[in-house]
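Are you able to produce any protein sequence you like plus the matching backbone structure tokens because I've never seen that pairing?
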Amino acid sequence: MDSIKSHGHVEVAVVAPDGTRSIVDSGHNTLLYGCADAVARLFAGEASYRPTTIGFVKAHDSGLGAAFDVTDGRKTKTQAELVGSALTVEDVPIESGYRFDATPPTSAEIAADPDATSHYSGNKVTFRAMTQDNTGSAYIYGFLLKDAAGRVLAVKKLTTAVQRTSSYAIAAAWTVEFD
């Protein structure tokens, strides 16, 4: 039996008051073992494990990235174990229009078998959230993908904190792929 691999990617944008988006960071995240637990529990019918929230890890000051500790790799941790007291987490509900896609075939797969009815090689789901209280400025240090009970499923620490100025929002598009 082939093994199934999973990985995630987060794209971060600053959103101007007129709705214009500027991508300011993107990169891979860390899927915790809790993510695999969530998938198994979802198969078993436990809907409370579905991702519902993206936690925006933030502070009013710069230079606090060390307080967001994601150094233990995929080990399952709680929000309190990941986010130090110098930082806060703004929980933003995931937009209801999440997107699910099957991975399209590569050109090599099509060339090798152009008449195949399916070249399925995996799938991905994308969750989106955007800050809602944008009255003050803040530094965003990263994100937590959480389920309905607040369990952390995946973590994304930004290389450099993103500054959000007053009246601007920060948007996160979090994609988890299985192949």
In short: The chain has three helices and ten strands. The beta strands are 6-15, 21-28, 30-31, 51-59, 88-93, 99-102, 123-130, 138-147, 152-164, 169-178. The CA atoms of residues 40 and 46 lie 9 Å apart. The chain has a mean pLDDT of 87.
